[in-house]
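Question:
Now give any protein.
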Amino acid sequence: MVLSKFRWLEPINAALQVAVLVTIPVEPKSINNVLIILWCLTSLLAFNRTRYNENRIRFVAPFILYFVILMIGLLLGPDPFSRNARLFVEARISFLILPFFLLISQPVNIDRAMKWFAGISTVLCLVCLGGAIIKNFNYNQLHDLDPLYVNPWFFTYFLYADHVQLHPTYFGMFLMSSIVFLLGWRREAPLSGYHWILIAFLGLNLVALMSRLIIGLMAVYFCFFLLFGFRARLRSKLAIALGGAVLLVAVALNPVAQKRIRDTFENDSATFSGTNLKVRMWTALYEEVISVHPLAGIGPVNVDHIVRHAYSRHGLVEPAEQNYNSHNQYIEAWVHHGLFGLFSLLLLYGYYFYVGVSRRNHLMIVAMLVIIVASITESLLMRQKGILFLSFFIPFVYLNSTKHDPLSHDLAEE
C-alpha cells in the first residue's frame, strides 16, 4: 500500500534500487553512497506494505544479530566513542538498514537489473583492457622495446584491475555473479551466440584477475553447469569443455599465473603474496590474540598495535610494518569480536546459503558460495564493496526472485 500522493515515486524507487545494485563495483564509492541515500528516501515515501510480512522480516534477523554483536564488541573494546569507532559504525550500519529498506521498496525485475549489472561489469572489463593496452604501449616506448612486446603483468592481477580501483577478489565476485546470471538466464531457451561471446569475455577477464579461489569456484560451477544445467548434445558439451581446458592450460603458461601458483606453496615471508604467509599470519593471530581473548575478542577499533605485536613476535616483518589485517574474515571476526562474533558470522553465511538452497535460488546459492569462499583469504567485510555485496546484493536477489530461472521460486506468490 502506497500513499496516493507519492505513487509517482514507485518507478523512481525501482530505478534507484537498480542503480544502487549496478554501482556497487564502480568507483568512486561516493556515487553509490549518494544513490543509496536517494533510494532510502524514496523507499520511505513510497512505502510498499505488500512486501513487509512476517516471513520476510525473519529473513533479515541474522543481519540484525550480526550488527548487534558488532556493536557489543565495539562497546566492550577500547575507545568505543572515538572517531574510529564512529567510522566503524557508519561502515557497518548497512547490515541493519539496507535489508529493511529492501523490504519496503518496490519490486524490481531482477532479469533487467542483472542485465544492467552484467553490462556494467563488461564496461569495467573494457576499461581494464584498454588501460592495459595503453600501459603496455607506454612501457614499450619508455624502454625502447618492440611495440608488439606484451608485458603479462599489465594484463593480469593487480595491474589489470588497478584501472577500476578494484581488488581482484572483489572484481572476480562481480564477474562471477554476472557470468552465472547469463548462464542461467532464460535457460528454457538456448543461449545465443552473443551471450556465449559475452560469457567468454567476462570469463577471460575473471581468469586474468588471478584470484585463485574465485577461479577454482568458477571452474567447479562451470563443470556442474555443463553436466546438469546445459541442455545440449554431448558433442557440444565436450567442445565447450575442451575450450575451457585449453584456456586454463594457456593461462597456466602465463608467467604471472606461474608465480601465483608458486606463491601458493612456497614459504616466503619477505613479500605479501603467498598463501603460506597468510597461514603464518593466521597462526600468529591465533596464538597471540585469539588464545588470550577467545570469547569477547579485543574490540574492532584502535587495536592495531596488538595485531602488529602478534605479527612481530612471529617474525612477520612486512605484515607488521604495513599494518595488514588478517586477510581472513573468519579470523577477523574471532580476533575482534571473539567466539560470539565468529558464531554470528557463520550463522549469517550459513542461513542465507540455506535460504538459497531451500528456495532453489540459483543466483543466490552461487553468490553466497562466492562470499563464503572469498572470506577464506580476504577480510571481505572490512571493505564497503564486500559489505554491500552481502547486505544489499543477497537480499535484493532473494526479494526479487525471478521466474525466468527454473531453479528459483517466484516469491511474489508468498
Notes: The chain has 19 helices and no strands. Confidence is low (pLDDT under 50) at residues 402-414. The CA atoms of residues 204 and 247 lie 8 Å apart. The longest helix spans residues 110-142.
